[in-house]
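MODEL INPUT / OUTPUT PAIR
PAIR INDEX: 1
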Amino acid sequence: MDSAKIQHLGERAAKAEAEIMALMQQLSMLKSGVAGNDVEDNSEAEKLMAENAKLNYRINIMKRAMEDNGGQRSAKKCIPESAPNGMVNILLKLEELFSLAIEQAFPNVKGFQVVVVPTTPNFGDYQFNGAMSLSKLLRTMGKSLNPREVASVIRENVPSNSVIDTLELAGPGYINIKLKASFVQEQLSLLLTRGVRPPCGVEKKRVIVDFSSPNIAKEMHVGHLRSTIIGDSICRLLEFLGHDVVRMNHVGDWGTQFGMLLAHLEDRFPNFAEETPPIGDLQSFYKESKIRFDSDADFKKRAYACVVKLQSHDPVYIKGWQAICDVSRREFQKIYDRLDIKIKERGESFYQDLMKKTVALLEETGVLKEDDGRKVMFAPGIAVPLTIVKSDGGYTYDTSDMAAIRQRIHDEKADWVIYVVDLGQAGHFETIFACAEVAGWLDRKKTRVEHVGFGVVLGEDKKKFKSRSSETVRLVDLLDEGLRRAKEKLIEKERDKVLTPEELESAQNAVAYGCVKYSDLAHNRNGDYVFSFDKMLEDKGNTAVYLLYAYTRIRSIARTANITDEQIKKAVADGIPLGHEKEMKLAKLLLRFPETIVRLTVDLFLHPLCEYLYEVSTVFTEFYDVCYCVEKDRTTGQIVHINMDRMALCEATANVMAQCFSLLGLKTVQKM
């Protein structure tokens, strides 16, 4: 890459420009009726324009490379734009540039929070709108500048860079930012050659995500759905960003309910200590034991005795307890396998011995108070205390959760602990976190802890989702219903006539489980949402069905045209000019992927990722409707021309969509 090669390419570009001008002049004469019928049509001009754009693109890339290797720099401070190990977060890059500008323009202003936001194409690509708040801050420091004057000074001090094309003042002090076409072209090429990668600049953390958490001996029901789906997607997001994530399943595998189960086990399978009891239907087994516990005083007495034996770790009863847990685990795993959920079990039983130490530590620090025989713990500003020790000396869920948060911070060395539990538990976790601070176990400057809450699942009658018999809906039944409905939808669209049985089954699974997940994640998790298969399976709008179909359609474009990976690579190497406004619009949107996923980590709301995915799909449709990728003869249907630049853009779009689907936990298919 030297100046001689740049000169050679420049000469080729100049020659192409001259030929374009000659052809365009001929076309102009033709329109005016001056030239004869032998004048060429504009197809030759279009080819030359495309070639010229590619040459100029390659010239810009080579110039950038020479500058990076010691060429002349601007006197202003410069910062690098490329990220060899990750995608560039353009929003973050712009915020860095504006921070440097403010630092240069107003040295006395320290720690000003710069905010750059995406904007509508009418104004540019991004917008800086901090001039008004900075103007107010400067006024307190004795410097009187109105917001527009502040914005003007900032604009003049933005460092030299290869990201920004223009900075325009607007209104009372906004700065509209337009990206350089060469920068967009370069980043799109990197996306295609290196893949959809995590953004650079993410500080790696050890994260524990507590989610799903069903109860042993009970079936998973619709109430477990949201925690499982949201928790899994959060894990996928954080894992993609490079964090060390521990997926924790805090199952309910301890407590007084096991007394009645063990007592019933003794009666049904007396030799359970020698042979594994053949418990078939654990739900029925649980109901039988509960009926006896509520109606039979002698059985209840035996049940309490079994709890004591279990808590004292009697080997016989531990074996019976393990047998019951194993049956539940197998049933849970069937659900997790269907939903493609990976999770590590660490139930309440794990913390039993730790609770004694937890109580002792709290007593040593003097934070426990006596209250009618109980030992409770108050947190500042919270009226209801935690009950750490009951009046009978037993422990509670509060004790278990305090033991858990200490173990996760102290032993697991977690930098970030996330609890994905319904909003009804918000007050409980607020108290747990506050008490952990009082105990000296949690320092929020070092460890991030948060409760990721969510609303309830409603039926179409807007009431809590129940079965027709007014019972809680079993998760396995709900998933089976999804499979049935998905197959009906595919057959209704006559997909069974074009797909093989294997392809149809793959599409059925992708649609069934994908629509259940996406419908949940596409909503603001703080709100309740109505569970409706009819709405989930709609093939229009922001639904899993529409987006999965859009993805397979994009993939089919290259497949139908028999485009190979090598051809895409060559197109990228030659340069993607992005000459049409719809091409540029789509490319810029694809490059917003890094900033989109980083923003999710601020509050762990996942619906913005669904909105981004839908926007990519709709902007691709805009592009595809006006930018021909594969041109066919209208009579024969034979392919007459393939625009490889646009095929590369199709590939980039599909790759970004595939990564979004992966983060949301949806499986894609090549045909649907």
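PAIR INDEX: 2
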Amino acid sequence: KMLNLARKQTGPSVAAARRATSLAQKHARSMSSTMEDYGSMCFVGAVADKYLKKHGESAALLEDPNWVSTKADKVAAALVDWGLDNGATCTAHWFQPLGSNQVRPGMSGCLINHFFTFNPSKGNVELKYSGEDLVKGETDGSSYPNGGLRATHTAGGYTIIDPTSPIFMRSDTIHVPCVFISWTGHALDEKTPLLRAEQAMSKEGTRLLKLLGYNVKGLQSNIGLEQEFFLIPRDSFARRLDLQMTGRTVLGKNAPRGQEMCDHYFAPLNTNANDCIKAIQEEAFALGISLKPRHREVAPNQYEMAPYFGRVTQQIDQNLVIMQLCEEVAARYNLACLFQEKPFADINGSGKHHNWSVGTSCGINLLNAKQVEKASGSASTFPIVLAAIISGVDKHGDLMRAAISCPGNDFRLGACEAPPAVISAYLGGSVTDFLDAYRQGKTAAYNPAKKMLSSGVDVVPDFEVPAVDRNRTSPFPFGGHRFEFRAVGSSQNCSMVNTVLATMTADAFKNFADAIEGGAKPDAVAQEALNKHWRVLFDGNGYDPAWLDEANSRGIWRIDSGVDAINMMASEKNIKLFADMKVLSKDELVARRDIGLQHYSGIVEMEALCFIDMLKQQIIPAIKEAEQDIKTVGAALKAVETGLAAMHHEADDYKKASLARVLRLETMITAREAVDSAEAECPAHLWPVATYKEMLFLDANQDSSGNTI
């Protein structure tokens, strides 16, 4: 019936009917089929087993990364069989170029090739895909941000398979997660340093644990990423140059309603947004991505999804896929997905709360006190590991701050919606008391008292709550069995964040192990570290202005400017840290600093150019038509043009990024006030761009099929 209706209708209603038909077809898919499809497009477990058995192997082969050197041909053959059975005839080496946040769709790079070769003389094609094709590829290393590591005349770049993250299939293409290395051996991507950092942490961590009497094969970071985002009407998105080009509104008067009533968080989902997120989750399930929850967030039209915990490289790869899915699927539902940290003024922005723990290769969580005590046979293992991590936070808080210095985070950090720019850790009362006693020589197992609460209603049972309360104002709170790095930006690839966490933890483990091998007692080493670095622990309100002064007096890391944090990345301390841990060479680290500064300036330049174009081509003509005075808006335009010109005349990356920060956080904010005041006076039918009211309230502006009312 819907198809017949679509044939009869004309104009915009045709698109509406087709959308409704498409949605009806998608909704017909049952949850049982979704459950059956879980992991069907991911080459692990039963899926891999089915095809590897044809070649004399099993899925267990993939658990040992040495297969890339010994049995790549068999895996390649199995992948071809898998692809042909599922309509895929292409493969792609899938990697993570530097400088991709906010500007590169999917934040990934890939070259798609058919796994057959053409035979023109015979008029046919032949399958041709070898283990060598699977393991290694080649591309131009100079056409991505590289910080001077490559140039047009020295352009060699190579993609090499990463066996820690599973191969997956989308559409007609089998995607092979890879690292990206230059001809000189420099890392040109986000993932290679992360793998090196994980290797260093595993090496130094297993060494430390062995000295404590606990033998393990290896360690790894396990993470869970809570992804926040906005969904707005796509026709409104199409009427905003700033959103299309930068993901952020550079002007716009507040709607009469925002989040002041606290009415959005966990509210029933808008029906069209809910259908969209369900479709995203269904596609993710097929790829083996465990996106379990979905809910509304604090701001209007803001949502969140999150997966289960998993190995760091796999979880980051999957998060990038999720972000790409969100953008692609949203368009099918007449929506646009926004990942920028602060797309709208005066309402909450988005983050990517980063839950992090360290586990053994056999699944023991070193941050789970009872679990690690049982596995290691010692009550001291847990506080020693915690002491090492705390020492790393205190010593390398500058690197933690640099790792979250994506351009959009400048609007969030310290704005009472995300943790402040002071890097501290929160442990909660029971853990703090336990470690306080431990550092004074009182060794005992961590055994927090259970806390039971009653609702005061007889028919509602009493219930147990965690021993540690939640502190949403801390950048790095402990949550029972993991730390949560709450300050990570929603648009970020989290590889550098985890490279920093793993490297500083590896360094701390090494320092502890060196001291113990030098004759010190393990408990004494941890106690000395806690006493030295206790200053970095803060259990209070991080939003309290008094905390900033106290943090300064304690001497812990406080870096208000993201530009300054990026620039400090390549300090002598940090060059030595990364070199000692064999994670990044000096050239590689300096390149990442330079790319970060250039990326910041580039984002601000695009925002300023959008502001200028919107004023010249849309806003000022509308104000003139409304017969309003344009002097104030004209002065705002001139101020932004002057600030942008100053940026263009500066060659030094740090100075240019510093000018960009002033332009963005001072000049453009003042200029915006003039434009927003003009919008408040301009007749609504003359205002040429989508307003906050039109963008932020799907419930009021769209019907259940995604059509704008």
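PAIR 2 NOTE: The chain has a mean pLDDT of 92.
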